[in-house]
């Protein structure tokens, strides 16, 4: 079933589609190769949630945070395999927004597309500001051109990334490749250093370093199982953007070969970069030494007596923030265009450049990201933080839609109504149901946590805005239908 057929089935109106290829490219250039897709997939699972946020999680749950990452990582794998099954059925540029529209309904696709767009706009706002803040590490005592206000660097980063996204999709892929390479190298380097301390015994931490510190410092659950459960929302936040690989489907050179390989790397990515790194760090540094707001990598470097650690980690988190903003620039333009192609957004967003890039949608999103930088500059208080807190729940909405769409697709495929995917999710639909239940648990825990509860308050407001917008679009379609029929006759 094509996107146009889906529109006819649900709306009775034909969607506005561009140059659609059989593979779902829809006018885009397939400029992302296997090397770039693999690193986008790896980088999507590694961000500031690990490099900075893990410190708060360790302080709260101790070594049991490792178990939280392992369980959440298994759920993420279920989500990604569900997405992979859908991608191999129909690798389209709109990805999960398209699948929500096809298998749940046009309103679900509308909500998913606009919510995922908002997620990346908000993320872009915060990450470009965070990148400017990280620059203060070097500019604090600097003279000359480096001695600039924070907003100047935020502007520079936004303009550079915006320009890169308008040159070619291949340049976007190259930026993500090298951003991800830096993050991967930093984590592997930390793991090797910790392994050396544990086996060879060099550095100041060698005298106390031992794997036994995972359970000898008050036990594996030093603050109780309840504290471990409360870290699940932080853990899931760290994995947000892992689904970005699905958005690249319309621009991958060989999606049916490349995407399954990228998705199948999820287990070892999580095992190495999250579980492996935490096991090593907590074997070298007692969990009680970590504090919220302090990177566990910085704390580990200090314990080892490596003074360059702070500078190294600051550079890594800077690239992680720029990587996230770069991904936001990329995904928002594609999501807006897909919404416009389906008649669920302004038609001007359908336009592509000669290089197959969604200029208008990317420009609109980048402009809003600049507004976010201005808001953060003028009023960095609670009002901005409330908006930022919505990112977690909006990101998880995409996962929920992926899982429900996969369950519905599998039922139709098993009945012979649709072709079977060449990349079936193992254990589905039961694994998808388990993942949905787990996300439900995380949402309940967010409601219990007073710091995260505000995001749940924001969700109904956003739902109301989307509901009004959707009704307005449907009313406009109905009003336009008689005029269209008269012109045909």
UniProtKB/TrEMBL annotation:
It comes from the Bacteria. The chain crosses the membrane at residues 39-58, 64-83, 103-122, 151-172, 184-203, 223-245, 266-285, 305-325, 357-377, 383-407, 428-448, 454-473. Residues 1-20 have a biased composition (Basic and acidic residues). It is found in: Cell membrane. Residues 1-27 are annotated as: Disordered. Belongs to the amino acid-polyamine-organocation (APC) superfamily. Amino acid transporter (AAT) (TC 2.A.3.1) family. Residues 37-479 form the Amino acid permease/ SLC12A domain. It is a multi-pass membrane protein. Keywords: Amino-acid transport, Cell membrane, Membrane, Transmembrane, Transmembrane helix, Transport. This is Amino acid permease. It holds the Pfam family AA_permease. Its main location: membrane.
């Amino acid at each position: 079933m094509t996107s146009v057929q889906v529109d006819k089935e649900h709306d009775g109106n034909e969607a506005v589609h561009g140059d659609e290829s059989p593979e779902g490219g829809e006018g885009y250039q397939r400029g992302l190769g296997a090397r770039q897709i693999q690193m986008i997939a790896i980088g999507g699972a590694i961000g500031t949630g690990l490099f900075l946020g893990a410190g708060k999680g360790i302080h709260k749950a101790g070594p049991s945070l490792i178990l939280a990452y392992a369980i959440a990582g298994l759920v993420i794998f279920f989500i990604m395999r569900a997405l992979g099954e859908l991608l191999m059925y129909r690798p389209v540029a709109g990805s999960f927004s398209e699948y929500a529209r096809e298998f749940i309904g046009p309103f679900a696709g509308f909500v998913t597309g606009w919510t995922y767009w908002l997620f990346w706009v908000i993320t872009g706002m915060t990450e470009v500001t965070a990148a400017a803040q990280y620059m203060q590490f070097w500019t604090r005592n600097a003279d000359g051109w480096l001695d600039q206000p924070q907003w100047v660097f935020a502007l520079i980063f936004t303009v550079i990334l915006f320009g890169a996204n308008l040159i070619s999709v291949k340049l976007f892929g190259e930026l993500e490749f090298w951003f991800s390479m830096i993050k991967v190298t930093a984590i592997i380097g930390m793991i090797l250093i910790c392994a050396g301390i544990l086996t060879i015994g060099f550095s100041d931490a060698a005298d106390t370093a031992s794997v036994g510190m995972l359970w000898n410092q008050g036990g594996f659950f030093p603050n109780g199982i309840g504290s471990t459960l409360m870290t699940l929302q932080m853990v899931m936040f760290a994995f947000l953007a892992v689904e970005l690989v699905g958005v690249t489907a319309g621009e991958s050179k060989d999606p049916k070969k490349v995407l399954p390989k990228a998705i199948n790397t999820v287990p070892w990515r999580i095992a190495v970069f999250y579980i492996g790194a935490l096991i090593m760090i907590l074997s070298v540094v007692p969990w009680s030494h970590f504090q919220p707001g302090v990177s566990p990598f910085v704390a580990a470097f200090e314990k080892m007596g490596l003074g360059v650690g702070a500078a190294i980690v600051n550079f890594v988190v800077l690239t992680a923030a720029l990587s996230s903003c770069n991904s936001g620039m990329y995904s928002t333009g594609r999501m807006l265009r897909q919404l416009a192609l389906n008649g669920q957004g302004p038609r001007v967003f359908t336009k592509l450049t000669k290089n197959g890039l969604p200029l208008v949608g990317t420009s609109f999103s980048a402009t809003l990201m600049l507004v976010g930088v201005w808001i953060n500059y003028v009023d960095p208080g609670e009002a901005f933080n409330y908006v930022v807190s919505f990112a977690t729940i909006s990101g998880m909405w995409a996962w929920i839609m992926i899982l429900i769409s996969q369950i519905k697709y599998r039922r139709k495929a098993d009945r012979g109504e649709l072709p079977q995917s060449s990349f079936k999710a193992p254990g589905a639909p039961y694994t998808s149901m388990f993942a949905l239940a787990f996300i439900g648990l995380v949402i309940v825990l967010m409601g219990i946590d007073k710091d995260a509860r505000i995001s749940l308050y924001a969700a109904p407001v956003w739902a109301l805005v989307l509901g009004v917008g959707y009704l307005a679009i449907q009313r406009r379609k109905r009003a336009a239908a008689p005029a269209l029929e008269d012109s045909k006759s």
